[in-house]
Amino acid sequence: MSEPILKAEHLGITFGGLKAVSDFNMVIGKGELVGLIGPNGAGKTTVFNLLTGVYKPTEGEFWLDGTKMSGKKTYQVVRAGIARTFQNIRLFRQMTVEENVLVAFDDSFSYHMGAAIFRTPGFWKQEKKKHAQAIDLLRIFGLEGYAGVQAANLAYGQQRKLEIARALATGMKLLLLDEPAAGMNPTETEDLLSCISTIRERFGIAILLIEHDMSLVMKVCQRIQVLDYGRTIASGLPNEVANNPQVITAYLGTDADDGVADDVATGKSSVDGGADTAESDAADKKEGAR
Amino acid sequence: MKKSILSTKQSYLVCALGVLALFLLVMAVCETGLASPYIKGIMMTACIAVIMTTSLNLTIGVLGQLTLGCCGFQAIGAYTAALLSKLIVAQGIAMSDMSRFLITIVAGGAMACIFGVIVGVPALRLHGDYLAIITLGFGEIIRVIIQNLKFAGGIGLSKGQQGQALIGIDRLANLYVVFWITVLTVAFLFMFGRSRYGRAVKAIRDDEIAASASGLNTTYLKVLVFAISAFFAGVAGGIFAQYIGSLNPAMAGWLNSINYVIMVVFGGMGSITGSIVSAIGLTILPELLRAFSDYRMLVYSVALVLVMIFRPQGIFGSWEFSLSKFINHLFYRGNGPKRGRAAVAVEGTASTDGVASTEDNATPDTAAGADDVSRLQDGVIASAGIAGTGEGSAGVGPDPNAPRDGGAMQEGDDRR
Amino acid sequence: MNSQLVMFISQIFNGLKIGSVYSLVALGYTMVYGIIRLINFAHGDFIMVGAYVLMLTAPAIIAMGMPAWVAVIPAILICVAVGVIVEKAAYKPVRERGNSMTALITAIAMSLLLENGAQAVFGADYKTIPTVFSIPSVNFGALHISGDTILTIVLGLVIMVGLQLYVSYTKRGKAMRAVSEDKEASILMGVNINSTITLTFAIGSGLAAVASLMYVAAYPQVSPTMGAMLGLKAFVAAVLGGIGSIPGAMIGGLTIGLIESLTKAYIGTITAGIITSAFSDAIVFGILIVVLLVKPSGIMGKNEGEKV
User: Fold this and answer.
1) Furthest CA-CA distance within chain B
2) pLDDT tens, position by position, A71-110
3) Burial class (CB in 10 A: 0-12, 13-18, 19+), B410
4) CB 3.0–4.6 Å: which of A21, B109, B141, C70 could bond A43 by disulfide?
5) Which of A49, A284, A285, A290 is the best mutation test for C, with the most CBs of C within 10 A?
6) Family per UniProt (chain C) (predicted)?
7) CATH superfamily of the domain spanning A4-81+172-289
8) Interface pTM (ipTM) of the complex?
9) Are A11 and A21 in contact (CB under 8 A)?
10) Class assignment of domain B36-310?
């Protein structure tokens, strides 16, 4: 494996005495696709919040491409190259699809306020260039025809895609996807999968994926890390993880006899059925206690 | 497709000509004596209201944060300008009235801007109701402080007396100059709103967490918007001081601020046109209804509730009037309604008033694209398959947007 | 007892008296905010409504041979009616269609409506109101504490305790707490949200009427804008105590009352005349700003972070 994109060491956060995540270690290489799984409330979204500077880790550090990122603000982390999507879609709903992408391009704009006010040639040139880039980016997701549509008016699956497109527009090196397939039907999920593999090939980025759909995780992830109660209980290749008795216990709560991937996959449906927001709720309560 | 018979630059020119025509009209009315001093006074008040409302609209409509302290900043600008004007005279510095007027209002704006930053940095950590109430608190504090400053009372500076109205301010405000200041303000806010800054600010309004996750420095942008609003409020205050000739600390009170909030809300959240129309309208209306002046606020409050119930985004919503679009519309009327509508739809969505709509078709092959674009273009091939709807495969034809955009709009609407 | 100490103690009692009025008003703010997350700007004006009702009904009540304070009963009825009408006619439709900003603007509009309505009916001038209480004052040596001061403080405490017991132990009270925690879940648990919100408004407005009785006992004057500043200060008290918390409103109200009364009396001497008693309003808002910036959840409130 080449030099890692992301390196996290002993990352942890405590909310009012409650350890939401502890001793989280992770290495992601260039172009790798790693899955982060675990039951509801295991701390997966909290890990995302740590990696994007939404929460400040109370212990441990992480580096992006060799640069220390822990302690930086969200926008600094994003500009350095970690972008994310959200479990419950967060688009700029009243803005157009194209504007959603252009906002994420913001860092790569170089004109300043004076240029904007006086409409200098540089302003026009850059706006034109970014418009073209935005359309091209949207084309990857089949959204270019919707460039002028208000984001709130997109279909659910398209909103998910737009969120990914927007994350890509930040020009990141590492993409964090928080349950991208949640609420999608099998066709849409299939569609999303090919999208993900396309952007990996085209952009050469690394992806960290949170997903409850176990078949999806098993299919696309090169490595998987399993969280339970904020601790890493297993990590490795998909097959190894699926056969790990601790993982099976975490998901099913009991000892499965000869459980393999299939068992985990059945476990998934019950997990999936649970409230999607339960995990972040838990995180909130912990924060409240702080 | 040529969506507009006017290029962006031409439409700016049309707009400038429209403003010039308006100015000539104002001048004609004033010079020929058609307008009494009373009418001129209303025009002046309307200009001040337009500056206040459009700049406040940046915070309330575009950034989506309700502030109730705009008159605090107006008062800071007014007192700064008035006292500076007195100081210049007292020091015996020789300068023309015009330059004294301009210097003092810019100073008033700058002072208000500084206070805007001082207030904004802590206050903007809060959201919604709390931000409203904290700005109200700041406004009240500014009022009480001005009330208790010795040099801000009586006839000012060394001869002042606390708790008194500041009087004897030279009335230097000239309607023509104020007209152009108003035009510059509106132009600034328009250009700001339709640039990457405006987009970023709107993004914060829609979802602050997603905005910072898209790499925006939300704190900086919010304080920037707050400071810009405060600057123009200060400028408006400076004009006000040198138009009325006397100042009272009560002008900083929150009930005054509410007046401007009402104007913004009536006009429409985020619509500059709406702010202008409602600022002018709500300045003239009470003058026409003098007989009912006791019931003015009563009517306003009922109307406000009705607007909030039936049209929460304000009368104009975020709609903007555009002279060039209007001209366009006149010329397209004969060419079939469908085409006309598509043009409006597309243009309405273009983020920078026409960059996208008038010149976009040529863009993919502009050299400017460099690496990213070519890399993205590779993605096009894959996209056809991913999209699965067939739309993606259309490629970059000479006229790719016209039919598809129309369709997309419809589809989007259906799925709402 | 030396005269300075007497002065200090009577200032304390003054502070507690006005603080109790703030507390009662703050209770209304805090209950409404807790349940629908709206700063009910019109709440301060409910006090004004109550005071006008007192002014109009007290002479008739006295003529009927009853003590003047009985006029609080019609005041409560009218205030409850106004509160419920405001909620049903304005807040509810806006809540269903708009966002929190439109709701706040509506609240401001209702405040303007009540103030200007009163002005249109009664005129802008101050009107005097007959004495509502005639309770002998209590004397400790040189220290005189008026009867209505003690009554105000005691009444404030009793109402606060009663309200706390009500929301803790009765079914309707529990429903209120449930709705303020989670609206959707409350619906699923069979709570009638609309009637709960209406009840909250009714209680809050009724308390405003009681507050108006206590206020006019201390300052026997009525004007259309009397509720505005009183309401704002009570809101500051609610924030200071922790919005959504009943004991918090009480603590916040008393604190603001004490601070106000003591700064008015002593700030000039302490700061050698740099800050005078004219700054007392600014000081109250200064407290608000500091509280919001340092601990937005207030003394008794709980944190609420945004979900990511």
Assistant:
1) 80
2) 899 999 999 999 999 989 999 999 999 999 999 998 888 8
3) exposed
4) A21
5) A284
6) Belongs to the binding-protein-dependent transport system permease family. LivHM subfamily.
7) P-loop containing nucleotide triphosphate hydrolases (3.40.50.300)
8) 0.84
9) yes
10) mainly alpha
